[in-house]
Amino acid sequence: MKLLEEKVLKEGAAISENILKVDGFINHQVDPVLMKAIGEDFAAHFKDQGITKVVTIESSGIAPALMTASAMQVPLLILKKSPSKILNKNMYQTVVTSFTKGTSYELTLAGHLISEQDHVLIIDDFLANGEAATGAIRLLRKAHATIAGIGILIEKTFQPGRAKLEEQGFSVYSQVRIAKLEKDHIELLAQEESSTL
């Protein structure tokens, strides 16, 4: 997606060979015009898939997932990173390890909000090792929902996330695919020449 590619190259900050900082427009300060375009792009890509819900993990995926759900006119379901102290009956839970933070968290899904009739689209901001998406898939499978596909804003193609998901038979669509990161250097897969910040 050209608009997101331009934002990543202009405003993203490569901190190291594994870390890309996008806090100015995706996960700290959010660009609503960009999010609307992202949602419309995901909706167009996954149209005619019979999607009944968009699913994301709190918190960075919420803005693009909400815009996607709005464009598709379906509900957004947010997987929580900590169990509810009030509503803890009929909860699906799994443990996920965050690549970026190097920590594990318990991902939860309220059973009454999902069913075997649901055909869901998972939206996430980054795809690296595929742990977050795999955790979401585990929860959705516990609820017997089916997964229409996985939409990713930014994929690090040099990490194994896509291969893990595709080996399980999932369709993965990434709006931006990063070929290489180095400090102060971002190279996109789709470009013939590397772009340096």
Essential attributes:
11 strands; seven-stranded mixed sheet; globular; alpha/beta; 27% helix; 197 residues; single chain; disordered C terminus
Tell me the Rg in angstroms.
16 Å
The spatial strand order of the largest sheet comes to 4-3-7-8-9-10-11
Question: Helix-strand pattern, N to C?
Answer: HEEHEHEEEEHEHEEE
Helix content: 25-40%
Spans with pLDDT under 50 lasting ≥5 residues? 191-197
Distance between the termini: 19 Å
- DSSP summary: helix tally: 5
How many DSSP-defined strands?
Answer: 11
Shape: globular
User: How would you classify the helix and strand content by structural class?
Assistant: alpha/beta
Mean pLDDT: 91
Estimated share of beta-strand residues:
25-35%
User: Tell me about the biggest sheet?
Assistant: 7 strands, mixed
Can you put this structure into words, describing what you see?
With 197 residues, this protein is α/β, with parallel strands linked by helices. It is built from five helices and eleven strands, in the order αββαβαββββαβαβββ. It has helices at residues 2-11, 32-45, 62-72, 131-142, 161-167; strands at residues 13-14, 20-21, 53-57, 76-79, 91-97, 104-110, 119-127, 146-156, 172-182, 185-188, 195-196. It has a seven-stranded mixed β-sheet with strand order 4-3-7-8-9-10-11, with helices on both faces. Strands 1-2 form a two-stranded antiparallel sheet. Strand 3 (53-57), helix 3 and strand 4 form a beta-alpha-beta unit. The longest helix has 14 residues, at 32-45.
